[in-house]
Amino acid sequence: MSELRLADVRKVYQTRGGEDVTAVRGVSLEVGSGELVALLGPSGCGKSTTLRMIAGLEELTSGDILIGGRSMVGLPPQRRNIGVAFENYALYPPLSVAQNITFGLRARKRQGWQQRLTEITERLDLVDILDDKPGGLSSGQKQRVALARAIARQPEVLLLDEPLSHLDAAQRDTTRRELRRLQQDLGYTTILVTHDQEEAISLADRVVVMRDGLIQQVGTPEEVYDD
Ligand code: ADP
Ligand code: ADP
């Protein structure tokens, strides 16, 4: 696994009206190899924009993003080894759950994808719906498929945006536990956006709080939630 570094990253959106919206104002952050950082902050503070820039879905206005010391600037999403589970990062409707999860794995001729698929789908309780199409699934099931897809790619960096928000309380508990075990076993360098304090406390090594496009606070979950 590799460390992730954001160096003075800025993002200014040009709106259709010709107005500039500064979404991220100069964020510098290092996420260590295998570390899980929870990213918190009020709506509109720049969390999604930050994740989208790391994933390559949005260009940086300035600054640099490095994975394992290599700059990602200018690389399209498919050339970055990043697993994402975003709210609006849709599953492909015509493909089965299994095909959605393994999409890109076979294309990359990865070794051992079948074993990996079995392990991940068992741990995320997806075995019974592998042949189903996404259209017929509950939003909680879709969310677990998206998580499985992100992890199955064996990414260097995992980006999760509210990955458990559509699960009911019981499922959130079990999925959170599985996510924690997977993260510990596989050691992914992870950024997790969440509003859920319990999720941040149980999963995160460090918590980063953003406000108005800037990092306001960084600390252990205990430090941040003690304030
Ligand atoms: P968060 O994920 O923390 O809610 P966002 O990154 O979505 O924050 O948004 C940060 C700021 O950038 C907000 O002011 C938002 O309105 C603005 N913004 C986000 N996406 C766009 C876009 N595509 N065009 C213009 N402004 C945007
Ligand atoms: P948006 O609606 O924001 O454009 P999409 O969900 O359409 O986001 O996907 C954004 C990118 O991710 C596209 O380049 C698309 O090809 C890719 N993508 C979407 N679903 C999958 C998938 N199941 N496997 C691999 N890549 C995907």
UniProtKB/TrEMBL annotation:
Top-rank taxon, per record: Bacteria
Domain ABC transporter: 4-227
One GO MF term attached to the UniProt entry: ATP hydrolysis activity
GO CC annotation terms, alphabetical: ATP-binding cassette (ABC) transporter complex, substrate-binding subunit-containing
The entry's keywords: ATP-binding, Cell membrane, Membrane, Nucleotide-binding, Sugar transport, Translocase, Transport
UniProt name for this protein: ABC-type sugar transport system, ATPase component
Parent-protein residues present: 1 to 227 of 365
